[in-house]
Amino acid sequence: MIKRILLIGNPNVGKSVIFSRLTGVQVISSNYPGTTVGITRGYFKIGEENIEVVDLPGTYSFEPTSTAEEVAVSLLKESSQDETVVIDIIDATNLERNLFLTLELIEQGYPVIACLNMCDDTEHRGIHLDTRKLEELLGIPVIPTCAVTGVGIKFLLERLIEAKPRPKKPLSHEMRWQEIGRIIQEVQQLTHRHHTLRELLEDISVRPLSGLLMSIVVVYTCFKAVRFFGESLINKIFDPVFTDLYLPFLDKLSSFLGKAGFLHHLVIGELINGKIDFRQSMGVLTTAPYIEFAMVLPYVISFYFMLSLLEDIGYLPRLAILLDNVLHRLGLHGYAIIPVLLGFGCNVPGILSTRVLESKRERFIASTLISIGVPCVPLQAMIFGLLGAFGGFYVAGVYLVLFSLLIIIGAVLNFTMHGYSPEFLLEIPPYRFPPLLLLCKKLYFRIKGFLMEAVPIVLMGVLAINILLYFKLFDFVTGLAAPVVKGLFGLPREAVVALVLGFFRKDVAVGMLMPLGLNAKQLFIAATLLAISFPCIATFVVLWKELGVKDLIKATLIMIIVSIIVGTLLNCCILT
Amino acid sequence: MKKLSLIKLKKNTKARVLEISGGGNLQHKMMSMGIYPGKEITKVSHFALRGPVTVKVGRSLIALGHSMAAKILLEKES
Question: Which residues from chain B sit within 8 angstroms of residue A317, using beta carbons?
Fold first, then answer.
């Protein structure tokens, strides 16, 4: 009886897309190796039977070379063979390389069924496959599919029961490749055709000079696009909704509560010149939702739209090649750019995806750098919103400081830490253009994730702060931290509250600075400190889980020391 | 027949893999990605200052770090 289905395959063959198709559970899938770094489980029904489906990180063989691959192989090894069916997902456009794992699976005696994915992409690449012949030669069912459109999934399910163990004598690696060579000769025919524009673009992106030019164009365009979409959403949709539709309701509520008192302080906050000010009132129903929805959410949408687009097209691994050299100086290799880019969205998935890196040393360096020098989108949105008012010069300044820190801390860690970092070995996927619907689904999934995580913390956080401020319970903490904050960083003592709140959420923390009437220099210092100092609680927990207590403490110490040095230096060196 | 490392191979030329002179771990990693003795590969590009090398192997494009590329010995018809 089948109880469990494992989805196994090389990296970047579409396991996660198949998983979503089978279970209806949305998972993030992208066009680069190593999107999935952990195990996701889902269920679907055949008749009355509930069957578990497990999505695993991709692996090239049974001998894992990274943490993500280890996860896949160990789960495969511990599964009971009578109740488990293995669906081996194969990239039809790259049959030869994929068959290595397929043969290994068959030899080991797993009940395997092969899913020949991306079949829609073969013909116009000049690849002709004889599926029947392949089935015959492998001795297992082979089903052509196209997971992004759903073609073939039904047949895949119908033939699940045909998966039977057919153990063979294990071959040596060389023998296995010879065997694969024979199979390929019989089932695959290639026809020559002219180079397409897509191939030309693929080619120029991996050559030094043209690749560099292309990366500058791509990165600049994306940055501009994120700014443009974000600003447009704020000015055309979110801000008008708040001021025109929501504000009249709040005005009534404010009058109803008598414009003052404890409850008014909590819900509406302070009136500025007798009116509600979304940026300064600091109430649970005023500033808190305004920060999350009208200042941060628009940027979250536009950032993830552009990131998802780049991910799905398959541009990111090309960026990794270009940056390999630079990142080597920081004790990392090119592929670390993927965790870093994800970290710009939110540090949590960024740190999780450091699992694509091979060594513990690399993972420590990458995680520390992300939590110090990579500000998440909510924080960046607030920095743009607040500091942008004083001129782009200050915003650029924050990025410049963070970028310099990445380079300096990376180089120092690389120099002082034991061991060396492994080399880069990465498959570069072809460009793909997935349906817009799939892109939108992924965007929706990420935005939903953001809202579910952020909104409760923001509302609760502002509520708690308001209560503490009302009863003046913060005075003790502010008094304690005032010498550092005021003396070294040149910030007013009220800014302590914001810096403490930064531990919960960075966006609201910057928001707390709004009513303080800081000048450009103070705001610049405070925003930079919020970016580099302590990570928010979600990041903290992930660091703990991924690195262990010892490394967490090490990373935290680095952060505190760096914050104090940078805050003091900035305060001393900038003239107002 | 001329022996040379992947570093020395000119770009846009083909050669056959002779041996991978690294540890077993590296050999295995390469092997599972389709780079093994006897396989024909084409060098696509090489980045300056000991940067990575990209090669075409079968239908896949693979990028490898400089010192990894140095460990791949090739033979080329001269």
Answer: 63
Domain boundaries, chain A: 4-190, 210-428+440-573
For A99-113, write each residue's pLDDT tens digit. 999 999 999 888 999
Which of B25, B32, B62 has its CB closest to that of A428? B62
The whole-number pLDDT of residue B71 equals 92
Segment A89-100 mean pLDDT: 93
Please report which confidence band the pLDDT of residue A576 belongs to, taking 50, 70 and 90 as the band edges.
low
Which segments of chain B are extended strands (E)? 2-5, 14-20, 40-46, 53-57, 60-64, 72-76
Q: In angstroms, rounded to a whole number, what is the distance separating the alpha carbons of residues A22 and A16?
A: 10
Instruction: Tell which CATH architecture fits domain A4-190.
Output: 3-Layer(aba) Sandwich (3.40)
Write the Ramachandran bin of B49: left for phi over 0, alpha for psi from -120 to 50, otherwise beta: left
Among the partner-chain residues B45, B64, B66, the one whose CB lies closest to the CB of A206 is B45
Q: Is A428 exposed, middle or buried (0-12, 13-18, 19+ CB in 10 A)?
A: buried
Q: Is there a contact between A555 and A371 (Cβ–Cβ < 8 Å)? A: yes
The range of the structural domain enclosing residue B10 comes to 2-76
Q: How far is B50 from chain A (nearest CA, A)?
A: 7
Chain A residues in contact with B57 by the CB 8 A cut-off are: 97
Q: What is the rounded distance in angstroms from the CA atom of residue B5 to the CA atom of residue B18? A: 9
Structure tokens at A64: 């894992």
Residue range A201-224, pLDDT digits in tens: 999 999 999 999 999 999 999 999
Per residue in A225-274, pLDDT (tens digit) is 999 999 999 999 999 999 999 999 999 999 999 888 899 999 999 898 88
Residue in chain B closest to A102 (alpha carbons) equals B32
| A·B CB contacts under 8 A | 109
Q: What share of chain B is helix, strand, coil (3-state, %, to 5)?
A: 20, 40, 40
The total number of structural domains that make up chain B: 1
Scanning the structure block, which residue is given the tokens 């531990």? A503
| Angle, in degrees to the nearest 10, between helices B24-33 and A95-107 | 120
| pLDDT tens, position by position, A286-307 | 999 999 999 999 999 999 999 9
Which of B10, B27, B33, B40 would best serve as a mutation to test chain A binding (most A beta carbons within 10 A)?
Answer: B33
Asked if residue A19 lies in contact with residue A13, where contact means CB atoms within 8 angstroms, the answer is no
Chain B: closest CA distance from residue A32 (Å): 12
Look up the CATH number of the domain holding residue B54. 2.30.30.90
| pLDDT reading at A183 higher than 80 | yes
